[in-house]
Amino acid sequence: MSGFFSQSTQASKGGYDSHGGDDGTAKKPTADQTLRAVTIKQINTATILPDSKFKIDDAEVANITFVATIRKVTEQASSTNYTVEDGTGAIDVVFWGNQTDTEEILAKRREMTVNTYVRVFGRPHSFGKHTNCSAFTVRPIVDFNEIAYHFIECVHSHLTFTKSSKSSDIQVVSSGNANTSGRALNDQIISYIESCGESSDGVHIEDIINKLRGLHTATSVRTALENLTNEGHCYTTSDDYHFKSTANY
Fold this sequence. Notes:
Radius of gyration: 18 Å
Number of domains: 2
Number of helices: 7
Shape: globular
Order of helices and strands: HEHEEEEEEHEEHHEHHEE
Number of strands: 12
Strand content: 25-35%
Largest sheet: 5 strands, mixed, barrel
């Protein structure tokens, strides 16, 4: 977990970015660019704003991660629906299928049966009085220490935000829809980041640009990285220039 740069970690350092803006003030990444470790109870009891955004501990959240046990699995034509619980509550998780998924990925997904512990990365959604999570990634937990670490992170986040004298002002920006070329670039970026998963700091943006030089422009790579971060597929670590994939978390 040394590479995970969560909202609580950033807030406890007095700012959300170690790099200041042009005017010398600290920049803050948007809620879409942060990953918050939460419990299911925090999701179910979150404040839902008129624009359907979620607030936990008076701070906006978009990308969330939690650990839980699968209690029910329902296969649909285009998605897999999981009902999961973590001891604090239960929630439905919707994981949309991808036609490009390999047989290896599909085989691992079939292993996630009832009573399997999993980690979920996704976004909370509210429909009337019902809250669920639209998942980017659902993967089985193989090291059960991860469960304890996760709840420690949840407690740390909660204490950081509830004891802070000023709540974080996080504004959400939306990412555009990627075209076919953009999806290919996204896949290349994620593949390269995951291949360097052993580094706790992740991969520097210049390394990614150099890796894809001749195939994509530096501007295209930077834009794609911003979109991937907004969509929860990767996150920044020690600064705004190092990235890790949520699959390596």
